[in-house]
Structure formats: structure tokens, C-alpha cells
């Protein structure tokens, strides 16, 4: 749970339409979201009763945790809720005895790249043609066809 009154962070196990709508803002494939959800620990952040954001964490290997999806409803952006979800992911990473938290985002996702770096993540690598090879239809973001994924990490 979050420490601020009226704001709660908790796990959820039922992927309903409200969660899916938010997750689709970060990943346009329901099939991929369902696949990731089945192997993730899912968190939601609520303001009062309203769903404000979601985050899916997966364990890609033995020494790291990965934010596979993170989305905050447009009405609640720029209020620190995404940062709170990141802090929860960092707490989970430490709690599991791991030293690295990873995230991947699109090379054209300028806001996300700035956000993750503000939260202490550093760029690690670029997965060339990641989105071209993974999605059937082109994704256009900020007027640019998305091709590459930027991998970022936060180290304990």
C-alpha cells in the first residue's frame, strides 16, 4: 500500500477490461499483454476507488526483475503515481535479493525515456528492430515508425 491517504498500490490477479484498457496504452497487443500477465506479478494504483495505473513485473532471469508494462491513466499523469509504481518495483527487486531492475521502451517514446531516467534508470542497450519483428502492424509514435527498443536498468 502507498503511504499517501487515498492512494493505494496493491496486487491484482483478475485482468479485467479496465486494466486491459490501461495496459493497451503501453502495448498495442492484447495477445502479448495476456501472455505477459500470466507470468507476471501485477500491481494497480488507485486514487480513492478509481484505477489510476497498472504495472506488470516479470522475472526474465535469475538476477533481475523487469517492468514489462507500466501505464498511468492520462487523467492521473504528472502527479507522481508512475514514480510510486517504480518505487514499488524497486522495493520488490530489493526484497527478492536482486540487484537490477530492467525496463524496455520504444526509441520514439521520448516521454517514457525521460521518465525512466528521472527515476534513476540508465540506458543499457538497444534491441534493433524489436518492434518490427514482434508486431504485425507498424507502430507510429511521435510521427516516427517505431523500430527499436531501448533497454534501461536501475542497479541497487
Q: Would you write up a description of this structure?
A:
The chain has helices spanning 17-26, 30-38, 81-95, 110-118, 130-134; strands spanning 7-12, 41-47, 50-61, 64-72, 100-106, 122-127, 140-141, 144-145, 149-155. By secondary structure, it is an alpha+beta fold. The chain has a single domain (7-155), classed as Aminopeptidase (3-Layer(aba) Sandwich). The strands form two sheets. The protein has a seven-stranded mixed β-sheet with strand order 1-2-3-4-5-9-6, with helices on both faces. A two-stranded antiparallel sheet has the order 7-8.
- Supply the CATH architecture: 3-Layer(aba) Sandwich
Shape: globular
Order of strands across the main sheet: 1-2-3-4-5-9-6
Spans with pLDDT under 50 lasting ≥5 residues?
A: none
- Whole-Å distance between the termini? 22 Å
Helicity range? 25-40%
What is the rounded Rg?
A: 15 Å
Look at the structure and give the mean pLDDT: 93
Say which CATH homologous superfamily is assigned. Answer: Gcn5-related N-acetyltransferase (GNAT)
State the name of the first-level CATH class: Alpha Beta
Instruction: Return the string of H and E elements.
Output: EHHEEEHEHEHEEE
How many domains make up the coordinates? 1
The name CATH uses for the topology is: Aminopeptidase
- What is the structural class? alpha+beta
| Number of strand elements | 9
Task: Report on the biggest sheet.
Answer: 7 strands, mixed
Please give the count of helices. 5
Strand content: 35-45%
Amino acid at each position: 500500500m502507498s503511504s499517501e491517504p487515498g492512494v493505494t498500490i496493491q496486487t491484482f490477479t483478475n485482468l479485467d477490461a479496465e486494466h486491459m484498457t490501461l495496459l493497451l496504452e503501453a502495448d498495442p497487443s492484447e495477445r502479448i499483454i495476456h501472455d505477459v500477465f500470466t507470468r507476471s506479478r501485477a500491481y494497480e494504483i488507485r486514487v480513492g476507488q478509481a484505477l489510476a495505473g497498472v504495472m506488470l513485473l516479470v522475472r526474465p532471469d535469475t538476477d533481475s526483475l523487469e517492468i514489462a508494462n507500466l501505464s498511468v491513466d492520462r487523467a492521473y499523469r504528472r502527479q507522481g503515481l508512475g514514480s510510486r509504481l517504480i518505487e514499488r518495483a524497486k522495493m520488490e527487486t530489493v526484497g527478492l535479493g536482486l540487484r537490477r531492475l530492467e525496463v524496455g521502451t520504444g526509441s520514439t517514446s521520448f516521454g517514457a525515456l525521460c521518465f525512466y531516467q528521472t527515476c534513476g534508470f540508465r540506458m543499457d542497450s538497444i534491441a534493433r528492430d524489436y518492434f518490427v519483428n514482434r508486431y504485425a502492424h507498424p507502430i507510429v509514435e511521435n510521427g516516427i515508425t517505431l523500430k527499436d527498443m531501448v533497454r534501461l536498468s536501475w542497479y541497487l
